[in-house]
Amino acid sequence: MEGALTARDRVGIQDFVLLDSYTSESAFLDNLRKRFHENLIYTYIGTLLVSVNPYKELGIYTKKQMDIYMGVNFFELPPHIYALSDNAYRTMLMENNNHVILISGESGAGKTESSKKILQFYAVSCPRTSLLDNVRDRLLLSNPVLEAFGNAKTLKNDNSSRFGKYMDIQFDFQGEAVGGHILSYLLEKSRVVHQNHGERNFHIFYQLVEGAEDGLLRWLGLERNCQLYRYLVQGQCAKVSSISDKTDWRTVRKALSVIEISEADTEHLFGVIASVLHLGNIRFEADARGYATLNSSTEMHWLSKLLGVHVQVLREGLTHRKIEARAEEVLSPLTAEHAIYARDALAKAIYGRTFAWLVNKTNESLANKVRLSSDYTVIGLLDIYGFEVFHVNSFEQFCINYCNEKLQQLFIQLTLKSEQEEYEAEGIEWEAVPFFNNKIICDLVEEKHRGIISVLDEECLRPGEASDLTFLEKLEEKLGGHPHFVTHKLADQKTRKTLERGDFRLLHYAGEVTYCVVGKEHSSWQSKNSIVKHCFPSIEPDSKKRPETVATQFKSSLAGLTEILMSKEPWYVRCLKPNNSKQSGCFDDVLVRHQVKYLGLMEHLRVRRAGFAYRRRFEVFLQRYKALCPDTWPHWKGKPADGVQRLVIHLGYRPDEYKMGRTKIFIRHPRTLFATEDAFEMCKHKLGESTKIEACWRGMQARKERERRTWAVKVIKRFIKGFMNRNQPVCVDNAEYLTFVRQNYLIRLKENLPKNLLDKNTWLTPPPIMQEASRILHQLYVRLLVRKYVRGLSILFPECNSHHLSQLQLKSLTSALFKGKKESYPQSVSKPFVATRISKEPFGKTVLGPTFYSVLVVKYDRNGFRPRQRQLVLTQAAAYLVEEAKIKQRVEYGSLKGVSVSHLSDNFLIIHVSCDDIKQKVGGFVTARNFLIVKLSCLLFCSTEKTYLMSLSTVIRFDIHPGKEGFVDFRSGQETMVYRAKNGHLMVVSVPYCNSATINAFGGVHRPSRHIQYYNANMFTIPMSTH
């Protein structure tokens, strides 16, 4: 911090404690404004951090920034929330005690973001293991879930927390985060049923309607239109440009799974949320006697389904109330107005209990499953609403401001206690500090039998007709003479003009607030509606005990929170918003002054400045200012306290300006420190020797850097010149560059050589100068791969040499026949040949002798083109067509005239035969089925005479018998078909491999052929596949 004192005129003071005019609000605001306009949003008041929302990204929350603030003294670097987080963490580890960070401020001031930054800092800075990473994920992702169910858009903030949250982060003795626990306070349930203009309901309702899957919406009986639901449109801003409900829905779904909420519980949770929307659409009409009747049958159906309550029970609960008289229960019908209130009360109760259930489920996920509770310490995060004053202040504002009164009381007590303990530890005499004690206001609200909450309880639960005005009259009766309580009746003539008859005014520590009692009684009335008992039977047991009101429940929970905070070491973050329009760079003095007052910042500053403005450990103070005294420069060899004493005497400090503690020096006035800092700045320029040494060192480093850069410039110039002349013959200008090109190409080639002979596309493209060398190297490398492959066959598989040789011969023959000519060829390259494609033992092996190849085929007749199932068996002597155990046709290889196939992806093979047998009269036949390529390769391989491939076209002619010809036409289509065309030709339609869903034995999905009608002449088909 001290290093920035010299810039104080431009950017202000980093610690308000150092302000000379510490009692002046104007000086406080001026310092805050200076820093804000320099994008310095953080300022200290001692260890309290003041944060101003910049409404823009500043780039100060990066991983690099986190590393800078880890393990650094609190005042060593500029103020930052990471500094406060790190010091709380390190103090917890060193002292093995519990700490709490209290974050407060108005809606929109950045409280929620501050708590997120603290969690993110701990997620990065704490030790990491896989188990602890899971804990971190749950801690971080608990935020989006609770924000979805507990945050809403308000006039001041698009993501305003509508509940108070206290989170404990649990650490083990090594500083590892092992668990957490969350407490929630005063959820604003009235928002479920009513929103002011320009505001929205809780985020989860809009996320569910806009982002949920269609199937889930159908199951919940919802439609993707927020305008259809009464509880979502009262604020008339269901759509907000800064909020993406669909994206947030996905985040919430992921977060729910991470915090281990099961799918079944998730469905039930969304069912409850949907039931609230259906409940809001239920309408009541008055009958002839004025009693409420229900006409929303559709909504009742969905409500019954989602809540698991019978329709009749729902109908009775919404239109009647139960009155207990001695041992009897009587159902009394409700008017339409009371039925609407009962409906809204039920919606609030359902949502409130659901939120409490969600918090409990989150706590189960965050629970420490590693060690016992005695083995860990905690850092608490309290994200609580700030003091609120609106044009109309209702019951929620009363509770919120009461909470702030209690926290302010605790805040002053803990600050005074901390100051007093430090003074006592250092042996400095403690001086009494005057401050406003707001205990009188807290008692006004919470005192038994006389406080506002007690009066509210009595009025809500007393027999007879209680109303808002009777409650106000009771307050006037019991609190009439209180100096901090005013009503229209009790006020003087001047004050009475500012109060309505249904208002009362409290004089809080932060100023006057006027509350309206209209509707207040309903906010705390405990519903006895039967449907609430039916929905929550285990939570609402039958009991004669008087139920607690909401205000009493809040008072009790606040007392519990106070006990938690009193048991921990506090750290404070006070959040301010600079303007109401959410504009960056705009500083509204009136608004900020209002917040400074309501947050009690001036009160806190007065407490911190009541004694000494500045305190530092002896070692730190001496290290910084030792150059100001000849006795302590350059090294002080005695005790630090003695060195500091010698230093301050030399500087001329008066006895009333400082005190020497046991480990620290205390300086009373900021001007004393500023004078010391200014003297230090002047002294630095007079330290000639150190300056000369520094100058010599810097000069030597600069000369080395200049030499290095000069060498680099020469190299770059030569490289550029060589690049420009790279296509010229080798000369002085490009010789070095071309050498680099050769070396670079050879190095890259070495790292990217092909792995096998079939890999022909990975040989690097050479530069022009290496074209010939690359060609020669490629040839040599191919020969090397061939040699390795052949040697590998003989060494690794000596018993399989003949088999591999035949495989290579067949592959070579197949490549010569089909490469670049047949669409289906590429799919066959990687598949090895096998001797048979028939699952059972082929007929040819037992009757015809040794077979070379056998496969199932379909032969097409010459008359009618009818298909015949056959086996094709290739032996060394001839080819046979076999039906079961009977030889149907024998073709000598010598009688083969040739074979024909199309260039498409079909499986048809036309074999041309010269026949001397007059009876047979066959000049050719056609086959179809799988394995066309292997079959044809084997046939040509087995033929001892010159058998050749006659045609690779889309129209193939063959001889049916002497003097008569047949034709087969081929074409591509969307579906495989074989049929006889109108011109008498056999039409074969095949699906190209590039867009086909019919990929046979090469893998893929089969699409069955559409057999419109099969016609055959002496032919058989082989559906194409692998060998």
Automatic annotation (TrEMBL):
Domain (Myosin motor): residue spans on this chain: 12-681
SMART domains linked to this entry: MYSc
UniProt-listed PANTHER family: MYOSIN, UNCONVENTIONAL MYOSIN-IH
Organism listed in the record: Scleropages formosus
GO CC terms: cell cortex; microvillus; myosin complex; plasma membrane
GO biological-process terms attached to the record: actin filament organization; actin filament-based movement; endocytosis
Keyword tags: Actin-binding, ATP-binding, Motor protein, Myosin, Nucleotide-binding, Repeat
Entry's family note: Belongs to the TRAFAC class myosin-kinesin ATPase superfamily. Myosin family.
Name assigned to this protein: Myosin IHb
